[in-house]
Amino acid sequence: YLDGSWSAIDSIPDLEGDPWRSQLAVDGKGLHVVWNAYTDEWDFDIYLQTRTHDGIWLERQQLSLTPSASLDQGVLLKDNILHVAWAERLSEARYGNWDIYYIKVILNI
After folding, report:
1. What is the chain's Cα-based Rg?
2. Can you tell me the distance from the alpha carbon of 66 to that of 7, in angstroms, rounded to the nearest whole number?
3. Is the distance from CB of 37 to CB of 16 less than 8 angstroms?
């Protein structure tokens, strides 16, 4: 049993597409949220947005700047660097020709 109180519920403002599969990372700068968004017919993108400790949502970043489906991201935060990897669909075939993409984001907040 935890003794304490719950914070007020908050949400990321003005989301694009249909967001799902969010992942979180926390450091001294705030809460970093990475998620998939279904934006068009079989087009999924990976986004990042940070909420500072004083409750301000910073500008959203699209991490997967690719023309195809970006799915199933994994997130690791270490030494002020957010590492994000995801599966990228390279062909129109739903079950074929996928690859793994990676990006590192240096958090200069």
Report:
1. 15
2. 36
3. yes
